[in-house]
Amino acid sequence: VYLHAAKIDNARKYMDECLELRKLLQITGGDEEPLAMLQAHVAGAEGKPQYVISLLEPLTIRDKVNSAVLGLLGTAYSQTGQTSKAVETLTAYFKMKPRDGTQGDGGPIRILLARQYGIQGDWKSALQEARRAEDAQKDNLAAGLFRIEAEMHVATGAASGERAKAFSTLGDELAKLRVE
Question: Taking residues 136-147, what's their average pLDDT?
């Protein structure tokens, strides 16, 4: 609740109290995933992606991994410049939740995957994911602009006539965005 309300300090305070109570009551065992996810969400909100990774990587060795773990872990990998791991983890996320990002949800994770492909220089995959993100969030200007960027990179490899036509079309699209 506190994380959704952007009250990170309160989230940290109450999470620490919960952890302290667990220690005092000597609560051990059980499913550690919910606790690790809570800690990872708070760490992510505090801007500590390396700590998120240290909390969630151990959960990925299980037979069944929660898609939320993969989404949060993939985000943390991208924030720490671990592009290959981010792509691998976010791709696994979308294999588990293929419709996520097609109904207005998952768009931010989808554009994150697109950006990671772009960092790797895989502009065709970046374009594919950017289109999916843009379809999921029609009003997301960042997704639209990244899709245009990816299209420009893909067009750079096209024959000169096709490239000129693509750049002209993309230029018109950018001009239209500027007016809106």
Answer: 86
